What does this fold into?
Amino acid sequence: MISQKQNDIQIRKIQKEDIEKIIPLLEQISTLHINIRPDIFISGTTKYTVEELTELLKNKEKPIYVAVNESDVCVGYAFCQLQKQPFSNNMVQFKSLFIDDLCVDQQARGQHIGESLFEHVKKEARKMHCYEVTLNVWSGNTSAEKFYEKMGMKTKERQMEYILEH
It folds into this structure.
């Protein structure tokens, strides 16, 4: 099922054969996060293991989209989660599609793959009758912040922290 194609890049739902192919991308994101926050991210790990990715494939409320080139190499991905709002009684009920993780291979950046992935996620969110697409960006990841702002995203709320001394 071809959903979106640009510059010989196809965006589609992940397949079992793609799992091993996205591990290097998960490693790239892990390295980025470790560099930003070495106090909370663990070196040598990724957000998901092969086993966890295999289980995620079965969950319709957590779709994963991949960007593959003409050689079927994964050059990007978007992990999403369908979320039902509200968090409290004083909020209108609606659905959100939360982007849990979005990555474009460092070697493939500048080819509008991230834009294609983001547009695909928005299209899928509309099909699911979502009100919004949301995500979190780590403070210090300025290139991601700029990218998402370029895509039209705006700050909705901000999570803050106070690190306790131990």
